[in-house]
Request: fold
Amino acid sequence: MDQGLTAPRNLLGFIDGIVGPHTTAEKQQDLWLAGPSPVAGGTIAVVRRMELDLPRFAALSVADQEAVFGRRRATGIPLSGGSIASDPDFGAKTPDGRYLIPADAHIRRADAEVVGVGLMLRRSYSTDEPTPGLLFISFQNDIRTFTNTLTHMDTSDALLQFTSTTASATFLILPGFDQQRLLGATLFH
Ligand code: HEM
Reply:
């Protein structure tokens, strides 16, 4: 798997965009809308403008930064080990009984299986104006994939103390188009 090589780093220095619906079967199940027919093949996009507190995050040791995400900063490998493509092992503990991936690590709080939702395709873009941050965009075929994940993060996610959301919107994305089928054509059948 070369996800880590192709996935970019965010302004906090971590590889972003590793986990998501990448196979055709996963996209069919969690990304594209199955219906109603006018929007089948489309999806739902959530866009959020998030500011990042870079100085406060940079002041942490590398180990503390890695604990915030639950992955290695240099490689993207989960703190439970393996490769960048390995599933995180949320049950793995140190000999003295502490979770290798802390209870409030972002990848644990946001994990689809832990939350009990489908996968979301995340495409985030770093921003510089008016302050450093991230334009977070997630695509999913059920809005609860996003809202339930956010609720699960809200109660305890170590990442949240470094972020503030300043704008948020949700969009219905129509199915793709070609020369035979113009954008929005399915709406007027
Ligand atoms: C400034 C805010 C955020 C930053 C910097 C950030 C960054 C990251 C990073 C570095 C990862 C680990 C690598 C990966 O799997 O891509 C990750 C995972 C993830 N993030 Fe975020 N994220 C942010 C906000 C959010 C929000 C608002 C959500 C959704 C409500 C979200 C959902 C997820 C999900 C679902 C994963 C995959 C978890 C897993 O199963 O391993 N993130 N994020």
